[in-house]
Amino acid sequence: xxxxxxxxxxxxxxxxxxxxxxxxxxxxxxxxxxxxxxxxxxxxxxxxxxxxxxxxxxxxxxxxxxxxxxxxxxxxxxxxxxxxxxxxxxxxxxxxxxxxxxxxxxxxxxxxxxxxxxxxxxxxxxxxxxxxxxxxxxxxxxxxxxxxxxxxxxxxxxxxxxxxxxxxxxxxxxxxxxxxxxxxxxxxxxxxxxxxxxxxxxxxxxxxxxxxxxxxxxxxxxxxxxxxxxxxxxxxxxxxxxxxxxxxxxxxxxxxxxxxxxxxxxxxxxxxxxxxxxxxxxxxxxxxxxxxxxxxxxxxxxxxxxxx
Length: 308
Ligand SMILES: Nc1ncnc2c1ncn2[C@@H]1O[C@H](COP(=O)(O)OP(=O)(O)OP(=O)(O)O)[C@@H](O)[C@H]1O
Ligand SMILES: [Mg+2]
What we know:
The chain is α/β, with parallel strands linked by helices and 308 residues long. It is 35% helix and 29% strand. The radius of gyration is 24 Å and the shape is elongated.
């Protein structure tokens, strides 16, 4: 069995509203899997089902071969969870939060103390370990929740928007750490940051309205879905005249202009040759293919409308 996580036709309904719709998925062991989707897409619902906080309406899911329906205890033993909302115990110090978690997982002091020292160091919280979480900044609390999820060395780590609210330094340090976990652990994360998914994930899935819209590596998604035939052309002079020329070409699907800089979307790859023929003799300062971003893919799949 090479799959750390298997979802089999998972459906979750709330009073007739379907938040997750017959969702199936297999995540290969030792990889970083990223789930992207607009607000309300169903990401947290899936994580809650996989971490046994919520039962699916239909279907079953397996973590390291254990069913979330019938073997919840085994699943909880093997996973680490960073929930979307921080859920630290505010009446315990940072270190005590980690110790409590270790003890709930049956660890002994000889095993958990050095591990906790190491995690506090890694998350930059060692100097503040005897303070209460309420005296921490939002980013520090987030880092403590991440440290807590790692205390018992889980086999599968679930991270629901792990870097929301973190400063750029902390984000990058967490990315480095997640990269270091790859192979020894399977990581399932959700994020709204396209650069994060791009930088971290071996595989990315974009979901909306409880179903999968796209699935692949960052490069595959960019290739398949984005405006791959958009070129940026900057003219040194005669920009107005070329605007007229471009508007009359049947293979030019769109033109956006900012001063002398044009963004030209072509019907297909073959259109670059006739475009060049029409621009022959013009005084071009710069021409380049606009590299698609994961954000272009995301917007083209999920639309521009803001979710409630
Ligand atoms: N307890 C609940 N009762 C009723 N509806 C719920 C409940 N929890 C979630 N929902 C609905 O299910 C849908 C999916 O919610 P979910 O929290 O999974 O989205 P999400 O993808 O994590 O979004 P976000 O990016 O905002 O965190 C939403 O429409 C939400 O309103
Ligand atoms: Mg969520």
